[in-house]
Design brief:
The chain contains 11 helices and 11 strands. 30% of the residues are buried. The protein is an alpha/beta fold. The two termini are 36 Å apart.
Length: 284
């Protein structure tokens, strides 16, 4: 138990450190913000939402950036206090509303608190504004890839069924075959999305000896851990080859409803579908 708690604390510290680097990287890496800050003194960053995570982020950021360079303020997610703090803010971390955006005339940079924000994050006024919006791409790669493999191997080894037996103080050997007990080194993983998380998942799959196929809408250059790479239009053609379909693409209007009945009908009856966007695992 002590080792597990230490592991969780270590992981949390690492995530906060990575998150802080996203929220406050060197000013030169965000030209729009750097230009404003260079003319008006310290860059003002407003962390919307408050809470313990905001305090940890603020502490990590201020340890690296002196007050002469960066002024960090924590406020609520909405309300009059948030509007007042945003009035002279150059950057913000969190979720804006049209009212908050209207109250922030100097805002040039918004850091989204997620790698794939919900659909209503980008409202029309924000899209039409000059505010640069960045996301948390890359911060959860290790967690997502490990979680994906955990689900994949858990189904492969029928851990859910054996755990239920263990709780009932019984043991009955379960039949193997198909997804249950398929030879992992001889299996094929289809990575739907070969971004940071998908690429890291491919690396872990290759470490297990698996064949990896990637389908990605934007990536065209080879990936060192993907044996075959195709465009998004090849998804239907590649689905029948996969023992494991591992999806890490974000939830966007373009991907809404992508995996419908027609996609599952193309998969092997024994294939396993893992979707880390919703953190679910299902058998097709």
């Amino acid at each position: 138990m002590a080792e597990q708690m230490a592991f969780e604390r270590g992981g949390r510290r690492r995530r906060v450190q990575l998150l802080a680097e996203h929220v406050a990287p060197p000013r030169s890496s965000i030209p729009a913000v750097a230009a404003v800050a260079s003319r008006s003194g310290p860059l003002k960053l407003v962390l919307l939402g408050g809470g313990e995570r905001a305090k940890e982020i603020a502490q990590t950021i201020t340890a690296k950036h002196p007050p002469s360079e960066l002024h960090v303020v924590i406020t609520g997610a909405d309300g009059e206090a948030a509007r007042q703090e945003l009035a002279d803010a150059h950057a913000a971390y969190g979720t804006l509303t049209p009212e908050l955006l209207a109250a922030a005339p100097k805002l040039r940079w918004l850091q989204c608190p997620a790698a794939a924000p919900v659909g209503n994050y980008y409202f029309p006024e924000l899209v039409a504004s000059d505010v640069v919006v960045t996301n948390m791409r890359g911060i959860y790669d290790e967690e997502l890839s490990i979680h994906m493999l955990t689900l994949m191997l858990g189904v492969n080894r029928r851990l859910d069924k054996y755990h239920s037996q263990q709780l009932g103080h019984e043991y009955v050997k379960l039949p193997s075959g198909g997804a249950y007990g398929v030879d992992i080194p001889a299996s094929t993983a289809l990575l739907v999305g070969v971004g940071n998380a998908g690429g890291e998942t491919a690396r872990l799959c290759k470490a297990l000896g698996m064949t990896t196929i990637g389908v990605d809408a934007r990536r065209t250059e080879p990936h060192p851990h993907v044996d075959e790479l195709y465009g998004a239009e090849a998804l239907d053609e590649q689905l029948p080859r996969a023992d494991f379909v591992l999806s890490s693409i974000p939830h966007t209007p373009a991907t809404e409803g992508l995996f419908d009945a027609s996609k599952f009908a193309l998969m092997k009856p024994s294939s396993v579908f893992v979707n880390v966007r919703a953190c679910t695992c299902a058998l097709s």
